[in-house]
Specification:
By secondary structure, the chain is mainly α. The chain has a domain at about 40-90. It has three helices and two strands. It has helices at about 25-40, 40-70, 80-85; strands spanning about 1-5, 10. Strands 1-2 form a two-stranded antiparallel sheet.
Length: about 90
């Protein structure tokens, strides 16, 4: 069974989880203006921002964690020349 909610169709497995956040007043006002101007809900835009930004945040965290692991000796690196050789790009 599918459920239609705020321009999205969800299966029962994908039901929405209610969440509460506090926003700075200026951010809340900007979100209100955008919602009024477009006729969409603030919740729609918050979902869009979170889902699109989550990939970026996860990537940034993994890059930072890799740097920590390299500095701590838990990961190793190879030189550019070695990588080119291993990939057969020096031919």
């Amino acid at each position: 069974m599918d459920v239609y909610y705020n321009d999205y169709t969800y299966s029962l497995k994908e039901m929405l989880m209610p969440t509460s956040i506090r926003l700075p007043e200026e951010t809340e006002e900007r979100l209100d203006r955008l919602a009024r101007a477009t006729g969409r809900s603030k919740a729609f835009y918050l979902r869009e921002l979170i889902t699109s930004g989550l990939d970026q945040l996860e990537w940034e965290y993994s890059v930072a964690q890799n740097a920590v692991d390299i500095r701590a000796g838990r990961r190793t690196t190879v030189s550019r020349a070695e990588a080119r050789r291993e990939l057969g790009l020096d031919e």
